């Protein structure tokens, strides 16, 4: 909840002027926000970021590595997820950040609201893969998210038709170009098959096999 104890905006007890941006900012700069637990980060995240940056002429993309995702099991330690994400983000225009932990936000609506308040002259665009579009209506106050930030969805394997039947798409419709919120655009390109769930399952399977078949 917002409160004003002084003449400076405060969020969760922290003056927003103290929150340092993860990368360069300036008036009119266009920044894509890709949120998630990144448990683990993978080339699919990189793919979504690079397609969106090229198609939407974004200056930078921020990977918002969440302290925890309310819709998923408890993730690995934040420091470990940040480290892996930085190893995957092989692009000088992508900045991996724990800014949600520093803001004290857990839900996307709170994060977006805080970032827009802290950096009012930046044009933020919310980015996600089409796999997340299918569950977007489960997010807290999803209508408010759509009302305050334009959304760009990048199609991914297995969910390429999400833009036709997802609740957000039915509510907003799909635009041909991104405008001020509310606005939803769907982008396409060569598709990456990787996702965090499959990578976690693969890693757990490998660990279990190693326990059953130790090398001697």
Q: Report the helical percentage.
A: 25-40%
From the 3D coordinates, which CATH architecture would you assign?
A: 3-Layer(aba) Sandwich
Biggest sheet strand line-up: 6-5-4-7-8-9
Shape: globular
How does the major sheet shape up?
6 strands, parallel
Q: What would CATH call the homologous superfamily? A: HUPs
The counted number of beta strands is 9
The low-confidence runs, each spanning 5 or more residues with pLDDT under 50, are 1-7, 196-216
Based on helices, strands and strand pairing, what is the structural class? alpha/beta
Can you write the helix and strand succession as a string? Answer: EEEEHEHEHHEHHEHHEH
Cα Rg = 18 Å
Q: What is the averaged pLDDT score?
A: 82
CATH topology: Rossmann fold
- The amount of beta strand, in percent, is 15-25%
Q: State the end-to-end CA separation.
A: 57 Å
Number of domains: 1
CATH domain class name: Alpha Beta
Instruction: Tally the helices.
Output: 9
């Amino acid at each position: 909840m917002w409160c004003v104890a002084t003449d400076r905006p405060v969020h969760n007890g922290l003056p927003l002027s103290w929150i340092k941006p993860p990368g360069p900012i300036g008036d009119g700069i266009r920044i894509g926000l890709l949120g998630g637990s990144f448990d683990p980060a993978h080339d699919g995240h990189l793919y979504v970021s690079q397609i969106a940056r090229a198609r939407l002429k974004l200056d930078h993309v921020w990977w918002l590595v969440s302290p925890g995702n309310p819709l998923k099991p408890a993730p690995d330690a934040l420091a470990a997820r940040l480290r892996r994400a930085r190893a995957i983000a092989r692009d000088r225009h992508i900045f991996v950040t724990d800014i949600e932990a520093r803001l004290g936000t857990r839900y996307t609506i709170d994060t977006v609201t805080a970032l827009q308040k802290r950096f009012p002259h930046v044009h933020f665009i919310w980015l996600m893969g089409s796999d997340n579009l299918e569950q977007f209506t489960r997010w807290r106050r999803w209508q408010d998210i759509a009302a305050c930030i334009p959304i760009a969805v990048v199609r991914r394997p297995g969910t390429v038709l999400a833009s036709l039947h997802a609740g957000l798409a039915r509510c907003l419709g799909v635009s041909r170009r991104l405008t001020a919120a509310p606005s939803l655009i769907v982008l396409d390109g060569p598709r990456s098959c990787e996702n965090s769930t499959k990578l976690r399952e693969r890693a757990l399977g490998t660990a279990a096999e190693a326990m059953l078949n130790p090398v001697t």
